[in-house]
UniProtKB/TrEMBL annotation:
Residues 203-230 form a coiled coil. It comes from Prevotella denticola. It is a single-pass membrane protein. InterPro entries: Band_7, Band_7/SPFH_dom_sf. Residues 62-216 form the Band domain. The chain crosses the membrane at residues 7-28. It comes from the Bacteria. It is found in: Membrane. Keywords: Coiled coil, Membrane, Transmembrane, Transmembrane helix. Its main location: membrane. This is SPFH domain / Band 7 family.
Length: 277
C-alpha cells in the first residue's frame, strides 16, 4: 500500500507546530515541599490575574505565565532583637523563633491577597512590635530565669499573632497557621552584662569580707570567754598570775607529742621539772 506524499505534509506541519509551541511554553514543577501559584498575564490585552488552582505537580504553562513557589511545610523563622527595654529600662538581647506554615491548596489566595513578600510585609513587623511591647512589661530577671513567665510570654505573643491573622482573614483570606512562638534566649546586652559581672564580683567580695569579719569576731569572743574562764579558775584556786602561767605551761608540755613530765620539784615561783622524751 502506498502512502501519498500529500498525507505527510499535514503531519509534518502539525509536528512543527507542536515543537514550536513547546519552545514557547514552559513547565512548572514544584518539589515535594512546595506548591505553586500562577500569575497569568494575557498575551495581548487584559490584566494579570492569579489562577484559582494551585500547582502541585509538573504543569505546562503559557510563556506569559509565571509561577510563585511557596513552601508548605512548617517553617522555623528566627528573630534577633537587640537592646529591647524591660520594665526597669534594662536593655536586653532576645533570640526567638516562630513556627509558621502556609496552608496547602490556598497559595493562590495568599499570593492574590498578600503578595509574594507576605511574611516581610505583614507578619514580621507585627511580630517584632508585639515582642517589643511585651518585653517592656516584664522584669528582666523573670525573662532571663523564670520559666513560668517565659511560657506565658510566648503564649501571649502566639495568641496575639493568631488574632492578628484572623483579623486580616476576615477581610481577605490569609492562609497561614502560627503554630509556635518560643523564646530561645534572653540576655543583657554586652555593656549591661559587664556591669552585672562587676556588681556580682563586688557583692561576692563584700560577702567574703563579711564572713571573714564574722570569723574574727567569733574568735575574739572565744578568746574573751576563755580569758574569763581562766580568771575564774585563778580566783577559785587562789593562784597568782605567775602560778597560773606555770600551770598552763605544764599542760602544754604534757600534751606535747612525745613529752612526759617525770619529776616536778619545788613549789615556789620557779619550780623545776625533768622532761623525758
Amino acid at each position: 500500500m502506498k502512502v501519498s506524499g500529500k498525507v505527510w505534509i499535514p503531519a509534518g506541519i502539525i509536528t512543527a507546530v507542536l515543537v514550536a509551541s513547546l519552545a514557547f511554553f514552559s513547565f512548572v514543577n514544584p518539589s515535594y515541599d512546595e506548591e505553586a501559584a500562577l500569575k497569568m498575564k494575557p498575551i495581548f490585552f487584559g490584566n494579570t490575574r492569579v489562577d484559582d488552582e494551585p500547582v502541585n505537580s509538573i504543569t505546562l504553562v503559557a510563556p506569559t505565565t509565571t509561577a510563585v513557589y511557596f513552601n508548605i511545610l512548617p517553617q522555623k523563622m528566627q528573630f534577633q532583637f537587640d537592646d529591647l527595654l524591660s520594665n526597669d529600662n534594662t536593655p536586653l538581647d532576645v533570640n526567638m523563633y516562630m513556627i509558621i506554615q502556609v496552608k496547602k491548596g490556598q497559595t493562590p489566595d495568599l499570593l492574590r491577597n498578600y503578595g509574594e513578600n507576605w511574611f516581610e510585609n505583614f507578619i514580621e513587623p507585627y511580630f517584632r512590635n508585639k515582642v517589643r511591647e511585651y518585653v517592656s512589661s516584664c522584669s528582666p530577671f523573670d525573662l532571663m530565669s523564670n520559666r513560668e513567665v517565659l511560657a506565658k510570654f510566648d503564649d501571649r505573643i502566639k495568641q496575639s499573632m493568631r488574632n492578628y491573622v484572623a483579623a486580616l482573614s476576615r477581610k481577605a483570606n490569609f492562609p497561614i497557621d502560627i503554630q509556635q512562638v518560643i523564646t530561645d534566649r534572653v540576655m543583657p546586652n554586652k555593656e549591661q552584662l559587664e556591669e552585672m559581672n562587676k556588681t556580682a564580683a563586688s557583692i561576692q567580695a563584700k560577702q567574703t569580707q563579711e564572713k571573714r569579719a564574722e570569723m574574727e569576731l567569733a574568735r575574739a569572743k572565744a578568746e574573751r570567754n576563755k580569758a574569763v574562764a581562766d580568771k575564774a579558775y585563778m580566783t577559785e584556786l587562789n593562784l597568782s598570775p605567775a602560778q597560773f602561767i606555770q600551770l598552763r605551761a605544764w599542760d602544754v608540755i604534757e600534751k606535747k607529742n612525745g613529752a612526759n613530765i617525770d619529776v616536778l620539784i619545788g613549789g615556789g615561783e620557779t619550780p623545776m621539772w625533768n622532761i623525758r622524751r
